[in-house]
Amino acid sequence: MKENYKVIIVDDHQLFADGMVRILADEDDFEVIGICNNSTELYHMLNNHKPDLIMLDIQMGGTNGLELCYDLKKTMPQIKVILISMFESINVVNEGKNSGANGYIPKTTDAALVKKSIREVMEGRDIFIKPINPETKVDLEGGSYAFLLSKREREIILYIKKGFTSKATAEELNISQFTVDTHRKNILKKLKLNSLKELISYAYENNL
């Protein structure tokens, strides 16, 4: 085991962040190098520090933690990310996995299990603690899952908004109609929508 793991906590609830600092301060192998309230503060800190782990709240004012996690894992995959949340439901866990997180810890978790879970993540295992009420459904940022879309899927949405058929879109992008239809199905699945009409409304509401 390395000498210590450098940790950044990203949470806009100061009491919780301070509590997490106290939990980790008791351990010789953890060093909290910063607390951030949002993504802007985090990226500023990342310009000067290289953490091994980021403890990231899922929902903060002005910051979608799931989207932030997705971006972090794309640009800095070497950094472990554990999502922390007051929400306990299976859809939170599933969306956490989709965002590329290495773990999920409910804020109600006791200190001993928090430390155990963090160590397991740092040793290379993904740890998603089972929610107390797994069937509970949680609305994450109004159901916005746009961060899961690929660049090509976003292109497809633009053509859908313009009224292009699958065939016309395929001709514009020089790809097969089958590929376009597959993208359309994947887009609806990712965004949890049921029709192109719903997709068009969603696209305008979320500036896609």
TrEMBL record:
Xref: Pfam families: GerE (PF00196), Response_reg (PF00072)
PROSITE patterns linked: HTH_LUXR_2, RESPONSE_REGULATORY
Gene Ontology biological process terms, A to Z: phosphorelay signal transduction system; regulation of DNA-templated transcription
Domain HTH luxR-type: 142-207
Residue ranges of domain Response regulatory in the record: 6-122
Positions where 4-aspartylphosphate occurs in the chain: D57
Keywords linked to the UniProt accession: DNA-binding, Phosphoprotein
Name of this chain's protein: LuxR family transcriptional regulator
Taxonomic placement: Bacteria, Pseudomonadati, Bacteroidota, Flavobacteriia, Flavobacteriales
